[in-house]
Amino acid sequence: MTQPLRVDIISDVMCPWCIVGYSQLAKAASDADIYLDVHWHPFELNPQMAEEGENLLEHLAAKYGSTPEQSTQARAQLTNLGQALGFEFNFSDDSHMWNTFRAHQLLDWAGEQGKGHDLKMALFKAHFTDAKNLSDPDVLADVAEAVGLDRAEALRLLASEERAAQVRQKQQFWQQQGIQGVPAMVFQQRHLVTGAQGEANYTNILTQLVEMSSES
């Protein structure tokens, strides 16, 4: 296929199903030899979360009523899914959730530098694999530097919050489109698919979109 398929992905780097869903989509596209034009967009699962974050198990129990047994089962499922897709989840009883508003501001800037996708992938790894505090400006700046962005500029941007209003507007836009959970993927700017669908379903979706594109 000569023309890439555009996919807008609304997500949060605290969302394990976002990296699972993207990895499933990417594998489906690779196996089908379909090129994706990926655009990431901000969504905060917990916009009111405090600076110090929350223990993951305590957070899930408070927010969803999850029992320790349910949390253990869910973490095992995600870990196995991740392994099959080449992504490493390192959950522990000390795993934390963090406020991601700063991360989204950094991603907004990185996108304009052509590094948005690289930074998004690096932030997923920093959180789920390396247990980094993604509300800490120094940690965010380190991750930015690791993907080829200017560390000092990243710190300056985070301190100034010059991207804050812009990120809020983008979040509100997607909320106004009815997005209430993530991952949410919009294919070709008109077909919405929510949740991690699995490789087989993504293959079917992509194949149908290619056929529709070739017919138009």
Keywords:
single chain; 6 strands; 216 residues; alpha+beta; 4-stranded mixed sheet
Describe this structure in words.
With 216 residues, this protein is an alpha+beta fold. It has helices at residues 16-31, 56-64, 68-85, 101-112, 116-129, 137-146, 151-160, 164-176, 199-215; strands at residues 5-11, 36-42, 54-55, 96-97, 184-187, 191-194. A four-stranded mixed sheet has the order 2-1-5-6. The chain has a two-stranded antiparallel ribbon with strand order 3-4. A hairpin with a 3-residue loop joins strand 5 and strand 6. Helix 1 runs parallel beside helix 3 (68-85), helix 4 runs antiparallel to helix 5 (116-129) and helix 5 crosses helix 6. It starts with a strand and ends with a helix.
The number of helical elements comes to: 9
Structural class estimated from helices and strands: alpha+beta
What is the terminal separation in angstroms? Answer: 14 Å
User: How do the SSEs run, as a string of H and E?
Assistant: EHEEHHEHHHHHEEH
What fraction of the residues are assigned to beta strands by DSSP? Answer: 5-15%
Return Rg in Å.
17 Å
Q: Residue ranges: pLDDT <50 for 5 or more in a row?
A: none
Largest sheet geometry: 4 strands, mixed
- Give the % helix: 55-70%
Q: What sort of overall outline do the alpha carbons produce when their principal axes are compared?
A: globular
Strand order of the largest sheet: 2-1-5-6
What is the total tally of β strands?
6
Mean pLDDT: 95
In short:
The chain is of the alpha+beta class and 216 residues long.
How does the SSE layout of this entry go?
Layout: E1 5-11, H1 16-31, E2 36-42, E3 54-55, H2 56-64, H3 68-85, E4 96-97, H4 101-112, H5 116-129, H6 137-146, H7 151-160, H8 164-176, E5 184-187, E6 191-194, H9 199-215
